RNA sequence: GCCCGGGUGGCGGAAUUGGUAGACGCAGCAGACUCAAAAUCUGCCAUUCGCAAGGAUGUGCUGGUUCGAUUCCAGUCCCGGGCACCA
């Protein structure tokens, strides 16, 4: 009986499906474990072998945890709203819901062949009204909440309303509008004014703001969807545009998002990326008065002064000029009459420049003097005020104090415009470049003279606060997240606009379903396609629906909660259920979501926690980023302007263009010339210069040379023709081989190239395992003989290794350990159930089909009633508990040369603690004793007390 | 420029975290079985000198600590990723 993986895998996949083997109950009596994959966007192109890598790892871990006795939640679903489906609809007129449905079907077919243990009864789709009903509901919770800075948590907006009605905003800590208002003023406000004030506090709020507008895509993009001034998708130019938008007040959570990173197990680099994105900096806000006697300056402008943000208040005596962002509100009023024309010209120039130019021409120094002077609050020095585009309106206060001796940009600016530079750091400043050191001792710095800069920072802030001209201030680089898209294929907002005021839909009207449309063109004035459906958008009572839709990250910000309670019609997720499942214990996915999805979902979790809908405030306990599986691309070299191709070794003698070709036409590096000619009509008559210099033309045969292709490791993708389809691999080698090989390739977190040839090794291993049970000639060969000590040792070493490796996610070394184990059992000619049964159970998470089949075969003779793959067999119960005596190491002896003498270096394994060992006097008797007893356990070597025995 | 990772055979990668570097697999070479092929099995496989026994060198590079360093420390070079007029 041969290892017929096709039949075996088909049989068990069907069996698992029919028996609902992997459906999970919310059985609170068992310990839980939640293993989650980042759910996929169902694209039309289908899977390549890189996609399932993370799913295989999570599946192995889920199955392993099940065998360990946990109730494991391991769901899967689809992030099915998104741009590509809509783009496709624009081109073909196919409704996104139709293409999405088709893509999901293809996707599912491909996934099912790999033998995953997902509980499909819990499947979610973000585009399903029964799902986005709750996305809309959570949006309303955000809309109806504000962030209480004194309690440091979100609270219902009604409580804020009560505060306003009772005492206005004057007592509110960290209130948003500077001035604040009293109870009387609030009472005097009309409905619209109250609406606008409350809007300033809502966690989901609407506001006019500069947004990243992409003309080609006809939509607004989030900051992380814009890379170097062009759109992440398609690379189209992006400009700034003022529009009414929805935002999430994620900035209120900046500090908690930062602190939460300490509690979760993410990789250091991922935490670093999030910290970077949040961009917390500590410094001071300082108010500079404007010189009163400036020509044409009105009195009130002088009073207001210019507020700057700096992280280096210690350098305040080195301020030689001030710079305002061109968009700064004071620019117009500060400019003196004689500078008016120059400033206007400069503002015009800045406006003409796109974001892209501003970013790519960073080194170019531009600016313009306003003619006004500010006054250094400490020494009264008059400082010229400039405007320049290197200062950004959106960060800090939009104005800086420039210290050329310690900041390179300020230095460059000062040199360019010939502004004299004050040196406050003595010899640390060489006059040719700025020195941002914090180690200097201050000079020319008034009351800070002689102080080390590090101490001066605090001293300066204390003084500023004492004199009430500034205060300690923390700043974040992160901005509130744009939450509207002018698009069709997304969640509609449950909001109605009436007389400039927003009104939420009552909960009973949810879901607000996405209306069916025939056309997907953008609506008027940059509005979304929904604005075109006037009968939907305009309501009888005179109101108008919000016509933008929510962004892609809306549904993915909370989907992991819905898996817990997917069929609940009255709540997004029952509190008891979410208390049971709690955090995702293991989350597996790519790094590309480091600052998008992972940050937004953390924020939503914190909001839901604040409002007491769930009991934990970090969604993921541990995150593993799987690496990419790269493709090995192949190239042919076309001689420019011809239809002739030259072999890789000779390409340097010609002027050539490399051309990606399909890896399936290449055996190793050798091109299948006929396949290439059939590939595309234009190559039908292609001619070749082979590696040995021979020419090859259509119709001529008999040459011995071969065409050698060039090769390169790149990202795997259809367009590079280096994608390998998992369906083909599963067809040729089986799902178990595929699963194990993907793991065998290398560490899960690393990127590594795919090599189809290597899969043979893993496949051979599984066949070898099969032959431990079935001999080609003799048939059944397993038996119930008693195992020998040597065989037990092999088994137990493997058990220990596999458990350690699986817990550490070191799946590649685990697969190696299985191979070693089987090789050794073959050598020992061991066909004993006592050894093989535990091995199969141990292997079930990695290769579930073959394990289930062989266990079934053996069990039908010897056992019944257990099901390993479903997890009713607990690992400890299924195999003898790992016993140390079978894996003990003996003392290691090896010769070593010390100072010319040959000695024997002996490392002894001791079963003593570090402290105990250090008490032991290492004399010959002790050593003799140890060697005699062959102590074991962990190898402990005490520095300076090594045992050297002279031979 | 700043911040993270990482440099080990022809290739993917191991090494119990300071103890015989190169497990396991691929590729390669030689052989067995076979009329032949497939499948399977055996041996070799870091570099170098040597017929061999054996020797020398070897974990990017240069030093240091140590009886002993792929592992720890300092410096340096290269590769990958992230951020970037953020005051």
Describe the SSE topology.
Layout: H1 5-18, E1 32-37, H2 53-67, E2 71-73, H3 83-92, H4 96-112, H5 129-143, E3 145-148, E4 153-156, H6 157-167, H7 183-188, H8 191-199, E5 204-214, E6 219-221, E7 226-227, E8 230-231, E9 239-248, H9 254-260, H10 268-278, E10 281-290, H11 299-304, E11 306-310, E12 321-324, H12 331-334, H13 340-352, H14 355-360, E13 368-375, E14 382-387, E15 399-402, H15 408-416, H16 453-466, E16 470-475, E17 481-482, E18 495-498, E19 501-504, H17 534-537, E20 544-545, H18 553-556, H19 559-562, H20 575-581, E21 586-589, H21 597-610, E22 623-625, E23 629-639, E24 644-646, E25 656-661, E26 666-667, E27 670-671, H22 673-679, E28 687-689, E29 695-696, E30 710-715, H23 726-733, H24 735-744, E31 752-753, H25 759-771, E32 774-775, E33 779-780, H26 789-807, H27 811-827, H28 833-843, H29 848-862, H30 875-878, E34 892-898, E35 901-907, H31 914-919, H32 924-933, E36 947-950
Parallel strand pairs: 1-2, 1-21, 12-14, 21-22, 23-31, 24-28
Antiparallel strand pairs: 3-4, 5-6, 5-9, 7-8, 9-17, 10-11, 10-13, 10-16, 12-15, 13-14, 18-19, 18-20, 23-24, 23-25, 23-30, 26-27, 28-29, 32-33, 34-35, 35-36
Helix pairs in contact: 1-29, 3-4, 23-24, 24-25, 24-27, 25-27, 26-27, 26-28, 28-29
The structure holds one RNA strand of 87 nucleotides.
């Amino acid at each position: 009986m041969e290892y017929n993986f096709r039949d075996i895998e088909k049989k068990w996949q069907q069996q698992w499906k029919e028996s609902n083997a992997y459906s999970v109950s919310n059985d609170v009596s068992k310990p839980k474990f939640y293993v989650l994959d980042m759910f996929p966007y169902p694209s039309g192109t289908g899977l390549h072998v890189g996609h399932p890598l993370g799913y295989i790892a999570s599946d192995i871990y889920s199955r392993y945890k099940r065998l360990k006795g946990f109730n494991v939640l391991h769901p899967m679903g689809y992030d099915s709203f998104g741009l590509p489906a809509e783009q496709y609809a624009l081109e073909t007129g196919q409704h996104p819901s139709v293409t999405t449905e088709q893509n999901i079907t293809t996707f599912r077919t491909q996934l099912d062949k790999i033998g995953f243990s997902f509980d499909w009864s819990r499947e979610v789709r973000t585009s399903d009204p029964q799902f986005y009903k709750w996305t809309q509901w959570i949006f309303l919770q955000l809309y109806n909440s504000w962030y209480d800075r004194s309690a440091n948590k979100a609270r219902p907006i009604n409580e804020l309303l009560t505060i306003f009605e009772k005492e206005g905003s004057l007592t509110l800590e960290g209130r948003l509008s500077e001035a604040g208002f009293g109870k009387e003023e609030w009472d005097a406000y009309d409905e619209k004014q109250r609406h606008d004030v409350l809007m300033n506090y809502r966690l989901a709020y609407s506001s006019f703001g500069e947004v990243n507008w992409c003309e080609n895509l006809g939509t607004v993009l989030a900051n992380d969807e814009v890379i170097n001034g062009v759109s992440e998708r398609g690379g189209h130019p992006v400009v700034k545009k003022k529009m009414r938008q929805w935002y999430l007040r994620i900035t209120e959570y900046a500090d908690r998002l930062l602190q939460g990173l300490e509690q979760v197990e993410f990789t250091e680099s991922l935490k670093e990326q999030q910290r970077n994105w949040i961009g917390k900096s500590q410094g001071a806000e300082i108010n500079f008065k404007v010189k009163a006697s400036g020509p044409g300056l009105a009195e009130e402008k002088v009073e207001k002064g210019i507020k700057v943000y700096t992280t280096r208040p210690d350098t305040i005596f080195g301020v030689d000029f001030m710079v305002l962002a061109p968009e700064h509100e004071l620019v117009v009023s500060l400019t003196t009459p004689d500078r008016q024309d120059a400033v206007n010209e400069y503002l015009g120039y800045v406006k003409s420049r796109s974001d892209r130019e501003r970013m790519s021409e960073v080194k170019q120094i531009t600016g313009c003097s306003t003619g006004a002077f500010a006054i250094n609050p400490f020494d009264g020095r008059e400082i010229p005020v400039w405007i320049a585009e290197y200062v950004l309106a959106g960060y800090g206060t939009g104005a800086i104090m420039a210290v050329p001796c310690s900041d390179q940009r300020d230095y460059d600016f000062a040199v360019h415009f010939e502004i004299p530079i004050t040196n406050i750091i003595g010899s640390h400043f060489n006059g040719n470049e700025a020195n941002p050191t914090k180690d200097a001792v201050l000079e020319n710095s008034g009351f800070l003279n002689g102080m080390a800069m590090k101490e001066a920072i605090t001293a300066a802030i204390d003084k500023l606060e004492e004199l009430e001209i500034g205060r300690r201030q923390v700043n974040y680089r992160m901005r509130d997240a744009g939450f509207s898209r002018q698009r069709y294929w997304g969640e509609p907002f449950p909001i109605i606009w009436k007389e400039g005021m927003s009104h939420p839909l009552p909960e009973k009207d949810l879901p607000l379903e996405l209306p069916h449309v025939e056309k997907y063109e953008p609506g008027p004035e940059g509005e979304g396609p929904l604005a075109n459906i006037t009968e939907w958008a305009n309501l009888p009572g005179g109101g108008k629906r919000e016509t933008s839709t929510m962004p892609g990250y809306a549904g993915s910000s909370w989907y992991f909660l819905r898996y817990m309670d997917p069929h609940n019609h009255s709540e997004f997720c029952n509190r008891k259920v979410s208390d049971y499942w709690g955090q995702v214990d293991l989350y597996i996915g790519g790094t590309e979501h480091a600052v998008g999805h992972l940050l937004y979902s953390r924020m939503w979790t914190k909001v839901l926690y604040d409002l007491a809908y769930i009991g934990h405030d970090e969604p993921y306990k541990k995150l593993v980023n799987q690496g990419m599986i790269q493709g090995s691309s192949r190239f042919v070299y076309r001689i420019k302007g011809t239809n002739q191709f030259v072999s890789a070794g000779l390409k340097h003698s010609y002027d050539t263009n490399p051309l990606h070709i399909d890896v399936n036409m290449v055996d190793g590096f050798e091109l299948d010339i006929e396949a290439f000619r059939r590939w595309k009509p234009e190559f039908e008559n292609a001619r070749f210069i082979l590696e040995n210099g021979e020419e090859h033309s259509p119709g001529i045969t008999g040459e011995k040379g071969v065409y050698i292709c060039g090769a390169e490791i790149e990202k795997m993708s259809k367009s590079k023709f280096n994608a390998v389809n998992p369906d083909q691999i599963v067809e040729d080698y089986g799902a178990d081989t595929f699963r194990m090989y993907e793991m065998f390739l290398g560490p899960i977190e690393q990127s590594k190239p795919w090599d189809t040839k290597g899969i043979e090794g893993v496949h051979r291993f599984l066949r070898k395992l099969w032959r431990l049970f079935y001999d080609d000639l003799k048939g059944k060969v397993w038996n119930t003989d008693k195992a020998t000590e040597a065989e037990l040792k092999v088994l137990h070493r493997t058990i220990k290794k596999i458990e350690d490796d699986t817990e550490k996610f070191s799946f590649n070394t685990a697969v190696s350990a299985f191979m070693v184990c089987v090789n050794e059992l073959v050598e020992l000619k061991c066909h004993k159930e006592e050894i093989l049964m535990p091995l199969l159970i141990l292997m079930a998470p990695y290769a579930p089909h073959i394990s289930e089949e062989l266990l079934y075969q053996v069990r039908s003779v010897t056992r019944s009633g257990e099901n390993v793959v479903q997890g009713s067999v607990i690992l400890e119960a299924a195999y003898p508990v790992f016993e140390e005596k079978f894996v003990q190491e003996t003392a290691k002896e090896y010769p070593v040369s010390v100072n010319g003498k040959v000695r024997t270096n002996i490392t002894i394994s001791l079963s003593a603690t570090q402290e105990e060992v250090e008490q032991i006097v290492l004399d010959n008797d002790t050593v003799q004793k140890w060697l005699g007893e062959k102590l074991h356990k962990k190898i402990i070597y005490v520095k300076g007390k090594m045992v050297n025995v002279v031979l």
